[in-house]
Amino acid sequence: MRTLYFLAVGLHLLTAIFWIGGQLFLALAVVPVVRQPAFRALSPALLQAMGLRFRTLGWITLGILILTGLINLAARGVTLELVLDPAFWRGAFGRALAGKLLAVALVIGLNALHDFWAGPRATRALAADPDGAEAARWRLRASWLARLTLLASLMAMGFAMFMVRGWP
Ligand code: HEM
To answer: Which atom of ligand 1 is nearest to the CA of 152?
Structure first.
């Protein structure tokens, strides 16, 4: 069980790094660059291609985070019986876990809105009329959903630290 625990924590950390790092790279490196005049003609197609690739990898990553997260909990002795005991959620670890699971639920909800609602409509509107009001509206919605997904992911990371190290 100890080897499985270390493998699960290692994979959990690696996927958390990929998920948060990938979002930061897209927001801080990719989007500002493809918006430069030199790449303007290519940017809708480039953003769509990279967005679709990261969308697939993102959902695989979230699946791995949930699976390894459950293994981490089991390895730390968190049983179903314990989870059903209200006293568990009043403790320091339980409160941090509650905050983390709430943040993860936000990540999944916001990411789904971005990937399956605002993102595809922004791509279609940009392809139809890059300078139109429709494109600008959907692009704004998609980028705000992406920012909120990143914020919720950082909250999940923060609560994870409180789970492992106690509250500050
Ligand atoms: C967006 C999703 C998630 C992110 C970004 C994330 C991030 C992290 C990070 C950065 C750590 C290491 C914290 C540290 O060592 O200070 C961690 C640990 C942990 N995470 Fe997650 N996590 C996510 C989802 C989940 C889920 C869904 C679960 C449970 C079902 C979970 C359970 C755990 C547990 C139990 C640990 C402690 C591992 C240990 O024993 O050291 N995580 N997480």
So the answer is: 1
Expressed in angstroms and rounded, the spacing between residue 155 Cα and the centre of ligand 1 is 11
Distance in angstroms (rounded) separating the CA atoms of residues 65 and 59? 10
Q: Which atom of ligand 1 is nearest to the CA of 165?
A: 16
Structural domain boundaries, residue 77: 2-165
Contact present, 118 and 141 (Cβ < 8 Å) = yes
Indicate if ligand 1 lies below 6 Å from the C-beta of 72.
yes
Measured between alpha carbons, how far is 86 from 70 in angstroms, rounded to an integer? 19
Number of domains in the chain: 1
List per-residue pLDDT tens for the chain, 168 residues long.
Answer: 799 999 999 999 999 999 999 999 999 999 899 889 898 788 888 888 998 999 999 999 999 999 999 999 999 999 999 999 999 999 999 999 999 999 999 999 999 999 999 999 998 998 888 889 999 999 999 999 999 999 999 999 999 999 999 999
